[in-house]
Structure formats: C-alpha cells, structure tokens
Amino acid sequence: MTQFTQILLSGLISGILVLDSVQVCQFLFSRPFFAGIILGLANGCLIEGAVMGLLFDLLYSFAIPVGGSIPPNGLAGIAAASIAFGSAGFSEPMAFFYGMLFAWLYSLADNKIRIIRSSWNLPFAEKISHGFVSFKILFLRSFAADFLVIALMAVIAGALAMLISFCIPHIAFIENGARFAYSFVPVLGISSLYFHFKRNILALSVRKSNFADAKASDSVCGAGCGGQSGKKNESQSALSIDDSDKKMLSAVFRRLFFIQAGWNYERFQNFGFLYAMMPFIEKIYPDPVKRKAAMLRNFQMVNTHPVMASLLAGVVARLEENFSAGKISLQRLSALKQSVSAAAAAAGDRFFWARLKPIALQLGIFAWLLAGYAGWLFNFQEIYSKPSAAVLIAGPIVSIAVYSFFAVSMRWNALKAGYYGQENNLFGLSSLPLEKYMRRADLSGFFFSVALIIEMFAFFFVKNSAMGTGKNLVLIMFVLMVLALFSGRLLVSRGIGMHKAAAVLLLAAIVFSAAGVPLVAFCL
Amino acid sequence: MLSFFRVDDRLVHGQVVEGWIPAFGIQALAVISDEISADLLRQKLIEFAVPAGIEIKFISLADAPKELAAIDSSPLKTMVLMPSMAEPEAMVRAGIKISSLNIGGLLYSACRGLSKGQHLPVSDKEKEGMKFLSMNGVVFDGRGVPSDISLDMLELAGLK
Fold first, then answer.
1. Which of A116, A213, A350 lies closest to B51 in CB terms?
2. How many Å lie between the alpha carbon of B132 and the closest alpha carbon of chain A?
3. Domain with A308 in it
4. Which of A439, A453, B64, B115 could form an S-S bond across to B120 if both were Cys, CB 3.0 to 4.6 Å?
C-alpha cells in the first residue's frame, strides 16, 4: 500500500468510527484504545497504533463531554498520530504530540458543526407543522458532516505530516524533548486516574447530612421519596408491562440509539429525542392537530446524558399521557421535563462518563497485562516479546464489552423505570441502582488505579535491573516518576485537563533540551 | 463561605457535579429560585443529582439576603446556583456583593451566538440585567466547565 492510500483509508476509518462517539450508539468503538488498533493496522504500525491509542485514552480519561462542552477528541488524535508515524515517518513521540494538536483542532471543528446544525431547527419545525416529517435525510446529513470533517482532517494531517518530514530536517533537541515528555505520558494518565478515584473515595466517606429544612420536606413528599425504598417499585413495575406496551417500549428503545443524531448547540439532542418519542406520540395523540403540537413540544431543548435519555423519554411519555388526560398543565410538564433531564444527566455523567468509561479502560489494560503485555508502560518492547494482534485487540474488546453491557442494559431498564415511574420514586430515578453502582465503581476504580501504580513501579525496577542501568540514573528516574505521579493531584484539584498538562510538559522539555540539559526518557 | 456564583438554567447537572464541585472543592450548594423553593418534587429531583457528602439548600429570593449572610459565615465552601439573570440582579439590588458571576447554560450559549444568533438571542431583559450588574462591579466569567477558557460575556452580548 502506498502512503496515500493508507492516509485515505485512515480518513475513511476515522469517519466511520467518529459516528459512534456522538451520532449513534456510543458503544465506545470510537475510543482511541480501540481505534488505535484499527488505524495502526491501516498504517502498518499495529503495536505503535495500539500503544498511542491507549495513551490518548488514558490521558483523556476525564476529558468528558458534560453538558455540551466539547473536550479534545482522542479519535482525531490517534488518527493523526498513526498516520504521522506509519505513513509520514515521524518518531513515535513526535507523532503522539502531533496527534494531540489534531485532537484539539477537531474539538474546535466539532463546535462549528454543532453551531451550523442549529440552523436546521427552524426549517424542521416548519416541516412538522406542515405534517411532513422524515428523519432519515436529516440524520444522514448530520452523519455526513461529522464523517467528512474528521476524514478531511485525517487527510490534511497526513499531507502536512508528509510535508513536514520532507521539508524540515530532523532537529535533535526537539526530538529529545518530545521523547522525554512522551515517556511521562503514561505516568500522567495513571496519576489522573488515581487522584480522581481517590477524591471520590474520600467524598464517599463523608456522610450526607442534609440541612434541617431539606429534611422537613421529606414528610410532604411521602415515604417513598428516599433512595432506599425504590426496589419495591421496580419489581411492581416489572410485572405491569403488557404486550402492547412492550412492543412500543422496544421500538422506542431501538430509536434511542440515535438520541444524539443531529446534536446542535441551540436545542442539543432535540432531533434524536423527537425521533425516539414518535411511537409514544403516535399512540397518545391520534388526532393530527394535537399530534403536531406534541411533536413541536418534544422538538424543544433536550439536554441529558445519552444513556439516561431513555429514562427521560419514558418520563416525558407518561407526562404527555397525563397532560392529554388533563391531569397536569403544560407548564408543569415542561418544568418537570427540565428537572428530570438535569437530574438524569448528572447521574449519567457521573456514572457512565466519569466512572465506567475510565474503569473499562483500566480493565482493558489488565487484559493486556494478563496476556503478558506491559510494553506500553515504558516502551520496553526490547526486553518483552512483541504482542500478537489477538492480544492487542483483546484489551479494547474487554473495555468496550464492559462499558456497553452496562450502557445498553441501563438504556432498557431506565426506559422502563421512567415510563412506569411515579413521583414517589422520583419518576423511576431512585428505583435504578445508580447510587450502588456509583459506590462500587469508585471502590473498584480506586483499587485498579493503585494496582496500575504498583504495576508501573514493579516494571520500572524489573526493567532497570534487567538492563543494568547505572544506579544514579535509576534514582533520578525514580524521583521524577514519583513527582510526575503527584502532579496529578495538583492538576485534578484545579480542574486542569491532562491535555494542557501534557502540552506544557512537552514545551518545557523542548526548552530544557534546547538549553542543553541532558534529558533521559524512561525508555532509555 | 460564599465561594462561587453561577447562572445556569439547568441548575445542578454534569458540569456542576463533575466540573465545578471537584475543581473548587465545593462542599455545599445553594439554589436561589422562587419557583424551585416552592416546589418540593423538583427539589427532590435536584437533590438526587447532588453527590453524597455535598449539602444543598433551596432559597427563595425574599430569604436570600438573610440566608446568604448565614452561609457566608459558615465554614462550608458554597456554590450559589441561579436559573436566570433575574436572581443575581435582585440579589445585588438587595445589597449582596457579587464580585464574579459565572455564566453557563442557555445564556452562555446565547451570548456566544452558538445558534448563529438567529433563534436564541440574549433577551433585552437579560441585557439590562447584565448592564446593571456590570455597573455594580460584577465581572462576568463565561465558562461551561473549569477547563474552558473564560469568555467576556459583556463583549459577546454586544454590551461593550
């Protein structure tokens, strides 16, 4: 394969994978840990692609898309990095930092696409009021936008990388600086995991003591308001599903995989939400005039977590039923919709983005370790045998399977819980085992992080004794590693992203290297 | 201790619980809204979104001066959340000092022209409120999450 076909193929692959990150499903095939392997294969650098992919995933573990903010995109990063390494002949460290640049650039482009999609709202609302609605064309346009932008970006990244390696000579101090900074990337990632989960563990130990007046309100809300009493409600609701309900719920369940299709900055997930709500709306409103009004109502702003959107769909369907029966006002409906979507979003962001996603990554790393591969830690392929493709792919597959198992089952359970929920179990929210999951996730995430740190230090000593490195050097490296590990605390507690931290580290390393300081990377 | 004021129509959601609370070590939240402080069901929904260990209090506009003074003298680092520009305006009129006001949510999108400025403009009422607040020494900090770059909302809303 020539370099050009490799670059085009990478563009195509990243274009397909990017759809999973926002537009459909969110099974996390778009996570760089998985994408790195596919893109590495395409660019003839399977191992380096897999390692760089893991490092992007690790570094961006907590760069999560909460409430419409767009963090650096690891998929765009790994696409540019594997092209730069495999097709343009960059060194691995240079390719990785080159990828970080594109991860950031893609987030800017993504921002622009979402602004542009806002202008699709009014014409679509117009169509609804004229009674003609087709989601297909709109969704395809939306997919095409994301596909083309990342594919184009991959091609540009490839062309630019080839131009750079053709025109600019190899500059030793930049290479050394990048190599030094790159060897700290795993430590930065591991330390951010450790300090995030440590902070969560510490928060767990603080007992929740509500203000006096908040407690007083319990009595008004009824005995079922608390988080503990939900279980009974769940079992009751499970019994009450009849066949026609089940058919409708499973249609909505399937449609909810498109909840983020057409994501735009004006109304967020409104296209996907209306699409998912259609089976409900058609059932509740046989009258075309009322149906149109309901469609326009459900085409308003929706902002929630993609998994927990199922709960919101169920709740809103029930509220619409109550509204059509004259039990609640329109104002009440939209106020409750807003409150439920914020509560569901907070729970979804906390469990799925900030806990399960990094934990699934940790499990993927342990899968590699069990299969005997730890070379990614310090790049010491020289003393460990090269991993097979089967071992490499096992890590991301474990990670995707764990995440998707929870996400897909929660989508179904939350839909049921929302539809059969009542005010006394907070519309099904408190009947879901989210608090329990969250606690367990914090504990396992913390222990996995500690295990990763132990693994890192163990391999550090094994490697250095195997290679017979000088004692002073080992000591210096050890001190640096501990310092890097504790820098995570500083960054986490100030909300500074690891993307920024790694960029600053790179610049500092290049400056020191240019000033003649001999920097020795971990990989030696 | 009052450590942070934020305007966001979504009140407690992911940006608050995963962004601001951990970044600033926030220990308590205070929601100022007449609508919410009279609505127990929505209070319960908001409480559900709050992580364990974080206190939350719902305050009506009329009670705000007294309650905020009490919070300011308590040791808990408290973040004040308000759904619209009307609440900070009323509070400054009642003599509460706000030096910096974070803007998130719909108003943040509107100021940034994220919907191409056509369908989601900053309303005249919001502009008036922002003008009044800025004359009273409030600095606007437009950010969704702490790692975003802080934007000058006055300039973006065309008030500078």
1. A350
2. 26
3. 244-344
4. B115
